[in-house]
Protein backbone atom coordinates (compact mmCIF):
# COMPACT_ATOMS: atom_id res chain seq x y z
CA UNK A 1 0.00 0.00 0.00
CA UNK A 2 1.23 3.50 -0.90
CA UNK A 3 1.90 5.80 2.02
CA UNK A 4 0.07 9.11 2.38
CA UNK A 5 3.30 11.05 1.92
CA UNK A 6 4.07 9.26 -1.35
CA UNK A 7 0.53 9.97 -2.60
CA UNK A 8 1.02 13.68 -1.92
CA UNK A 9 4.34 13.72 -3.79
CA UNK A 10 2.81 11.90 -6.79
CA UNK A 11 -0.16 14.27 -6.82
CA UNK A 12 2.16 17.27 -6.67
CA UNK A 13 4.30 15.95 -9.55
CA UNK A 14 1.25 15.22 -11.72
CA UNK A 15 -0.17 18.69 -10.99
CA UNK A 16 3.15 20.30 -11.88
CA UNK A 17 3.35 18.31 -15.12
CA UNK A 18 -0.19 19.34 -16.14
CA UNK A 19 0.60 22.99 -15.33
CA UNK A 20 3.80 22.91 -17.42
CA UNK A 21 1.98 21.30 -20.36
CA UNK A 22 -0.83 23.88 -20.25
CA UNK A 23 1.66 26.76 -20.09
CA UNK A 24 3.48 25.37 -23.12
CA UNK A 25 0.23 25.24 -25.12
CA UNK A 26 -0.77 28.79 -24.18
CA UNK A 27 2.59 30.44 -24.86
CA UNK A 28 2.69 29.20 -28.45
CA UNK A 29 -0.71 30.70 -29.30
CA UNK A 30 0.13 34.12 -27.87
CA UNK A 31 3.46 34.59 -29.65
CA UNK A 32 1.92 35.66 -32.96
CA UNK A 33 -0.74 37.84 -31.41
CA UNK A 34 1.76 39.79 -29.33
CA UNK A 35 4.65 39.92 -31.80
CA UNK A 36 5.45 43.43 -33.01
CA UNK A 37 5.44 44.20 -36.70
CA UNK A 38 8.85 43.97 -38.32
CA UNK A 39 8.57 46.76 -40.87
CA UNK A 40 6.38 49.57 -42.08
CA UNK A 41 4.66 47.28 -44.56
CA UNK A 42 3.23 45.13 -41.82
CA UNK A 43 -0.12 46.90 -41.52
CA UNK A 44 -1.91 44.62 -43.96
CA UNK A 45 -0.44 41.68 -42.06
CA UNK A 46 -1.59 43.31 -38.80
CA UNK A 47 -5.08 43.60 -40.23
CA UNK A 48 -5.31 39.96 -41.30
CA UNK A 49 -3.69 38.81 -38.07
CA UNK A 50 -6.54 40.51 -36.16
CA UNK A 51 -9.22 38.93 -38.37
CA UNK A 52 -9.48 41.71 -40.95
CA UNK A 53 -9.90 41.36 -44.69
CA UNK A 54 -6.89 40.76 -46.95
CA UNK A 55 -7.88 43.61 -49.27
CA UNK A 56 -6.83 47.26 -48.83
CA UNK A 57 -9.05 49.53 -46.76
CA UNK A 58 -12.19 50.77 -48.55
CA UNK A 59 -12.12 54.19 -46.91
CA UNK A 60 -9.73 56.42 -45.02
CA UNK A 61 -11.40 59.06 -42.90
CA UNK A 62 -10.71 61.74 -40.34
CA UNK A 63 -13.26 61.55 -37.54
CA UNK A 64 -15.59 64.56 -37.48
CA UNK A 65 -18.18 63.38 -34.95
CA UNK A 66 -18.89 60.30 -32.85
CA UNK A 67 -22.36 59.35 -31.63
CA UNK A 68 -22.32 55.94 -30.00
CA UNK A 69 -21.25 53.52 -32.71
CA UNK A 70 -21.96 55.97 -35.56
CA UNK A 71 -19.06 58.03 -36.90
CA UNK A 72 -19.16 60.87 -39.37
CA UNK A 73 -15.81 61.15 -41.10
CA UNK A 74 -14.24 63.47 -43.64
CA UNK A 75 -12.96 61.44 -46.59
CA UNK A 76 -9.17 61.35 -46.73
CA UNK A 77 -7.05 61.00 -49.83
CA UNK A 78 -3.72 59.45 -49.03
CA UNK A 79 -0.60 59.59 -51.14
CA UNK A 80 1.33 57.12 -49.06
CA UNK A 81 3.91 54.84 -50.66
CA UNK A 82 2.41 51.57 -51.88
CA UNK A 83 5.37 49.27 -52.56
CA UNK A 84 7.54 47.78 -49.83
CA UNK A 85 10.58 49.69 -51.08
CA UNK A 86 8.69 53.00 -51.06
CA UNK A 87 7.44 52.36 -47.53
CA UNK A 88 10.95 51.55 -46.28
CA UNK A 89 12.33 54.72 -47.90
CA UNK A 90 9.51 56.78 -46.38
CA UNK A 91 10.10 55.29 -42.94
CA UNK A 92 13.81 56.12 -43.11
CA UNK A 93 13.05 59.64 -44.29
CA UNK A 94 10.48 60.25 -41.55
CA UNK A 95 12.83 59.02 -38.80
CA UNK A 96 15.42 61.59 -39.81
CA UNK A 97 12.97 64.52 -39.57
CA UNK A 98 12.14 66.73 -36.60
CA UNK A 99 8.59 66.45 -35.18
CA UNK A 100 7.58 69.66 -36.97
CA UNK A 101 8.97 68.41 -40.28
CA UNK A 102 7.17 65.07 -39.81
CA UNK A 103 3.88 66.86 -39.26
CA UNK A 104 4.40 68.91 -42.42
CA UNK A 105 5.32 65.81 -44.45
CA UNK A 106 2.19 64.02 -43.21
CA UNK A 107 0.03 67.01 -44.10
CA UNK A 108 1.43 66.92 -47.65
CA UNK A 109 0.61 63.21 -48.03
CA UNK A 110 -2.77 63.19 -46.32
CA UNK A 111 -5.45 65.43 -47.86
CA UNK A 112 -8.69 65.74 -45.91
CA UNK A 113 -11.68 66.66 -48.07
CA UNK A 114 -14.90 68.42 -47.07
CA UNK A 115 -16.96 65.38 -48.15
CA UNK A 116 -18.34 63.39 -45.22
CA UNK A 117 -19.48 59.80 -44.88
CA UNK A 118 -21.49 58.19 -42.08
CA UNK A 119 -20.10 54.88 -40.86
CA UNK A 120 -21.74 52.50 -38.42
CA UNK A 121 -19.49 50.17 -36.45
CA UNK A 122 -21.66 47.21 -35.38
CA UNK A 123 -21.11 45.61 -32.01
CA UNK A 124 -18.39 42.97 -32.22
CA UNK A 125 -16.53 44.49 -35.17
CA UNK A 126 -12.79 44.38 -34.46
CA UNK A 127 -11.12 47.76 -33.89
CA UNK A 128 -7.34 47.75 -33.85
CA UNK A 129 -4.91 50.57 -33.20
CA UNK A 130 -1.48 50.70 -34.80
CA UNK A 131 1.48 52.83 -33.89
CA UNK A 132 3.59 54.92 -36.23
CA UNK A 133 3.76 53.55 -39.76
CA UNK A 134 1.89 50.34 -39.09
CA UNK A 135 3.90 49.29 -36.06
CA UNK A 136 2.67 46.97 -33.34
CA UNK A 137 -1.10 46.61 -33.30
CA UNK A 138 -3.49 46.03 -30.42
CA UNK A 139 -7.21 45.43 -30.31
CA UNK A 140 -8.99 48.34 -28.63
CA UNK A 141 -12.49 49.40 -27.74
CA UNK A 142 -14.50 51.67 -30.04
CA UNK A 143 -14.24 54.32 -27.30
CA UNK A 144 -10.56 54.74 -28.27
CA UNK A 145 -11.63 56.48 -31.48
CA UNK A 146 -11.45 60.24 -30.95
CA UNK A 147 -12.44 63.28 -32.99
CA UNK A 148 -9.64 64.12 -35.44
CA UNK A 149 -8.22 60.56 -35.60
CA UNK A 150 -7.30 59.11 -38.98
CA UNK A 151 -9.15 55.81 -39.31
CA UNK A 152 -9.21 53.14 -42.00
CA UNK A 153 -12.45 51.29 -42.67
CA UNK A 154 -13.15 48.00 -44.40
CA UNK A 155 -16.81 48.16 -45.34
CA UNK A 156 -19.47 45.51 -45.86
CA UNK A 157 -20.38 44.96 -49.49
CA UNK A 158 -23.94 46.30 -49.30
CA UNK A 159 -24.79 49.66 -47.67
CA UNK A 160 -27.49 49.71 -45.01
CA UNK A 161 -29.90 51.60 -47.29
CA UNK A 162 -29.92 54.87 -45.35
CA UNK A 163 -26.77 56.24 -46.95
CA UNK A 164 -24.72 54.85 -44.08
CA UNK A 165 -21.95 52.32 -44.56
CA UNK A 166 -21.40 49.41 -42.21
CA UNK A 167 -17.84 48.68 -41.11
CA UNK A 168 -16.60 45.11 -40.95
CA UNK A 169 -13.15 46.06 -39.65
CA UNK A 170 -11.61 49.30 -38.32
CA UNK A 171 -8.01 50.44 -37.84
CA UNK A 172 -7.04 53.57 -35.93
CA UNK A 173 -3.66 55.03 -36.94
CA UNK A 174 -2.27 56.32 -33.66
CA UNK A 175 0.74 58.59 -33.52
CA UNK A 176 0.87 59.12 -37.27
CA UNK A 177 -0.65 58.25 -40.58
CA UNK A 178 0.90 54.82 -40.90
CA UNK A 179 0.27 52.22 -43.53
What does this structure look like?
There is one protein chain. A hairpin with a 6-residue loop joins β4 and β5. This protein has a domain at 43-79 and 111-173: Beta Barrel (OB fold (Dihydrolipoamide Acetyltransferase, E2P)), CATH 2.40.50. A five-stranded mixed β-barrel has the order 1-2-3-7-6. By secondary structure, the protein is of the alpha+beta class. Helix content is 34%, strand content 29%. The radius of gyration is 22 Å and the shape is elongated. The protein has helices at residues 4-34, 43-49, 84-95, 99-109; strands at 59-67, 70-78, 110-120, 127-130, 137-139, 150-155, 164-173. The protein contains four helices and seven strands. Residues 27-43 have low confidence and may be disordered. Residues 30-48 have a biased composition (Polar residues). Residues 30-56, 159-179 are annotated as: Disordered.
Amino acid sequence: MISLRLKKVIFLLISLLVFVLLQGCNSGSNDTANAPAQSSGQSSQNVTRWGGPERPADLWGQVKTIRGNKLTVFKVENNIAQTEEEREALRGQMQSLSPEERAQARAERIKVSDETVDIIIPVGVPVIATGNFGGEAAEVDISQIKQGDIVKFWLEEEPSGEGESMAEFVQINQGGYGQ
